[in-house]
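Supplementary Methods, section 5.1.

A reviewer requested that the exact input to the structure prediction be made available. We therefore reproduce it here, unchanged from the version used in the analyses.
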Amino acid sequence: MTITRAQRLALKSVYDRGVLYLYDGKTVSSQRYIGHKPITYRQFRKLVQPGWDCIMVPWLGMWLGIETDGYTHS
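The structure derived from this sequence is encoded token-by-token as follows.
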């Protein structure tokens, strides 16, 4: 799976929205899991799945799609 530069920048922007923790294969916010170690950006990138014409990443209980031009939607 090839990720474009625009997708990488959008993925980093999503990651930077807040501290994320991994719980049962899903990303969760810091309010529930204080004391656990937050995931790194590299760990977050490993969660990316190929979509029809975009990449998909789980983020706080939903899937975000990131188009090849960086447009992000849920």
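The chain has a mean pLDDT of 86. These observations are discussed further in the main text.
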